[in-house]
Amino acid sequence: MRGETFAYWYLRQLGYVFVAKNYTPRGGAKGELDLVGYDGETLAFVEVRTRTLGEQLTALPELSVTSYMQHIVARTA
């Protein structure tokens, strides 16, 4: 939750205009979109990945998004 809040405010400072947080489609479809907003005229779907101090911080957060998770986010979007 803290990571999503931080990402929300950070991206707002960059000019994003958000239209949804924690969006889940109706009808029981699988998937959730952490943040949905506009970056200018581009609609952006944001997956927030947060790491704690106990985890290894050597890998980039985007590497923790598996191809399966990318598929779910794309289908939900």
In the sheet with the most strands, the strands line up as 1-2-3
Total helical segments: 2
Reading off the top of the CATH hierarchy, the class is best stated as Alpha Beta
Major sheet size, sense and barrel closure = 3 strands, antiparallel
Poorly predicted runs of 5 or more residues: none
- Quaternary class: single chain
Proportion of strand residues: 15-25%
Structurally, how many domains make up the residues? 1
CATH topology: Trna Endonuclease, Chain: A, domain 1
The overall pLDDT average reads 85
* CATH architecture designation: 3-Layer(aba) Sandwich
Strand segment tally: 3
**Rounded radius of gyration (Å):** 13 Å
Shape descriptor: globular
**How widely separated are the two ends?**
21 Å
Name the helicity range. 25-40%
